[in-house]
Amino acid sequence: MAKATVCLTYDFDAVSTWLWSYDSWDEPTRHSRGVFGAEVGAPRLLDLHDKYDVPATWFIPGHTIDSFPEISGEVWDRGYDIQHHGWSHTGPATFESEEDERADVERALDCIVDLTGRKPTGYRSPAWDFSAHTLDILEDIGIEWDSSKMASDFHPHWAYGGWSAPEDDAYDRGEPTDIVELPVSWQRDDWPAFTFTWARPHRMGYVSEDSIFQRWYDQFDWMYENVDGGTFILTMHPQVIGQAHRLMRLEALIQHMQTKPDVEFKLMDEVASDFRENN
User: Fold this and answer.
1) Rounded to 5, what percent of the chain is helix, strand, coil?
2) Which domains does the chain possess?
3) Tens of pLDDT along 141-197?
4) Which one of 34, 84, 162, 181 is separated from 170 by 20 to 30 angstroms, measured CA to CA?
5) CA angle at 146 for the pair 143 and 150, rounded to the nearest 5°
6) What are the residue boundaries of the NodB homology domain, all occurrences included (predicted)?
């Protein structure tokens, strides 16, 4: 087993995040940021990964596949994995009913099957949000692993279901399911740090970029030195990380990781399969 594993992942939301997560239906300037991700950012990232022969997992909403079929197909045709990210980029807990959530999940499933010819094995929820029904829906459609929760930082584990949080009693985490959890973190996500919106909701997005990339270096280096067999999962968005100056910094980070002995870059699906085989 490698001393450390790196999973570089992209949430290819394109326009969908501005329509459903930010309610920007009548704001074409916001839409254009998603178009940039599809037409400029995504091709740049594919070229970068081709250059270093580094695998990547792309979580693509069905809306992006339907709206930008050519670049979505290119992700798959160039050898990168495509996994489930909902159809409309709606947070699961915000659906009005279980039926609405299930319909969105199944619609996205059909989009991926139509594009790739195979069912996705993994899921990442929009905004890392779950409803009380999400795990059941994922199990029903045959999802084998999830990457939406934060109960660990560098270790895959079994996802838990059936939790309860009563106001007047102790928290109950529930019981392990048969779904593998590949944990994420807002500390390893480009969106909250770099995305500026001036209203609905307001977000600054003007932190020192040096500090964010240094955080990623530091977290990877700490994991490498202190966690045997750790998995470093980085979440990025083509419309954010695909900006020219950030692409240069991402390339430097990849180079840094490659200088460390016994580091493997893997697809998320491979990491989940390895965990399942050994646990």
Assistant:
1) 50, 15, 35
2) 4-162+174-278 (3.20.20.370)
3) 999 999 999 999 999 999 999 999 999 999 999 999 999 999 999 999 999 999 988
4) 181
5) 160
6) 16-266
